[in-house]
Amino acid sequence: MSAKGNCYDNAVAESFFHTLTTEYVYFEKFMTRAEAQSGIFEYIEVFYNRIRRHSTLGNMSPQAFEQAKVA
Protein backbone atom coordinates (compact mmCIF):
# COMPACT_ATOMS: atom_id res chain seq x y z
CA MET A 1 0.00 0.00 0.00
CA SER A 2 1.16 3.49 -0.68
CA ALA A 3 0.15 6.81 0.84
CA LYS A 4 -2.99 7.23 2.93
CA GLY A 5 -6.03 7.95 0.81
CA ASN A 6 -4.58 6.67 -2.46
CA CYS A 7 -7.60 5.37 -4.37
CA TYR A 8 -5.51 3.07 -6.59
CA ASP A 9 -4.36 0.86 -3.70
CA ASN A 10 -7.59 -1.11 -3.72
CA ALA A 11 -7.98 -1.49 -7.50
CA VAL A 12 -6.56 -5.02 -7.76
CA ALA A 13 -8.74 -6.37 -4.95
CA GLU A 14 -11.83 -4.63 -6.32
CA SER A 15 -11.18 -6.07 -9.77
CA PHE A 16 -10.79 -9.59 -8.37
CA PHE A 17 -14.01 -9.44 -6.34
CA HIS A 18 -15.90 -8.06 -9.33
CA THR A 19 -14.68 -10.97 -11.44
CA LEU A 20 -15.54 -13.49 -8.72
CA THR A 21 -19.08 -12.23 -8.32
CA THR A 22 -19.90 -11.75 -12.00
CA GLU A 23 -18.32 -14.99 -13.24
CA TYR A 24 -19.29 -17.30 -10.40
CA VAL A 25 -21.34 -16.12 -7.42
CA TYR A 26 -24.26 -14.66 -9.40
CA PHE A 27 -24.76 -17.98 -11.21
CA GLU A 28 -24.75 -20.22 -8.15
CA LYS A 29 -27.35 -20.82 -5.47
CA PHE A 30 -25.73 -21.72 -2.17
CA MET A 31 -27.83 -23.42 0.48
CA THR A 32 -25.31 -23.14 3.32
CA ARG A 33 -22.32 -21.02 4.20
CA ALA A 34 -20.10 -24.12 4.03
CA GLU A 35 -21.29 -24.82 0.50
CA ALA A 36 -20.50 -21.23 -0.50
CA GLN A 37 -17.03 -21.40 1.05
CA SER A 38 -16.27 -24.69 -0.66
CA GLY A 39 -17.53 -23.52 -4.05
CA ILE A 40 -15.66 -20.20 -3.92
CA PHE A 41 -12.47 -21.93 -2.80
CA GLU A 42 -12.75 -24.35 -5.72
CA TYR A 43 -13.43 -21.51 -8.18
CA ILE A 44 -10.33 -19.63 -7.04
CA GLU A 45 -7.93 -22.56 -6.68
CA VAL A 46 -9.02 -24.64 -9.66
CA PHE A 47 -10.42 -22.25 -12.25
CA TYR A 48 -9.10 -18.75 -11.50
CA ASN A 49 -5.51 -19.71 -10.70
CA ARG A 50 -5.01 -22.69 -13.03
CA ILE A 51 -7.26 -22.26 -16.06
CA ARG A 52 -8.61 -18.71 -16.44
CA ARG A 53 -6.46 -16.51 -18.69
CA HIS A 54 -5.53 -13.07 -17.41
CA SER A 55 -4.86 -10.20 -19.81
CA THR A 56 -2.27 -8.67 -17.47
CA LEU A 57 -0.25 -11.91 -17.69
CA GLY A 58 -0.16 -12.00 -21.48
CA ASN A 59 -3.35 -14.10 -21.67
CA MET A 60 -1.83 -16.88 -19.59
CA SER A 61 -3.19 -18.48 -16.47
CA PRO A 62 -1.34 -17.57 -13.27
CA GLN A 63 -0.07 -21.14 -12.98
CA ALA A 64 1.28 -21.14 -16.55
CA PHE A 65 2.79 -17.69 -16.03
CA GLU A 66 4.67 -18.84 -12.92
CA GLN A 67 5.92 -21.98 -14.66
CA ALA A 68 7.14 -19.93 -17.64
CA LYS A 69 8.86 -17.49 -15.30
CA VAL A 70 10.79 -20.29 -13.57
CA ALA A 71 11.84 -22.00 -16.79
What does this structure look like?
With 71 residues, the protein is mostly helical. The protein has one domain (7-70). Helices cover 54% and strands 0% of the residues. It has three helices and no strands. It is flat and about 40 Å long. The mean pLDDT is 88.
Give a quick rundown of the structure.
This protein is 54% helix and 0% strand. By secondary structure, it is an all-alpha fold. The protein is flat and about 40 Å long.
Helical run tally: 3
Label the overall shape: flat
The oligomeric state of the chains shown is single chain
The tally of strands reads 0
Q: What number of domains? A: 1
Topology pattern, helix = H, strand = E: HHH
Quote the distance from N terminus to C terminus. 30 Å
Derived from helix and strand composition plus strand pairing, the structural class reads mainly alpha
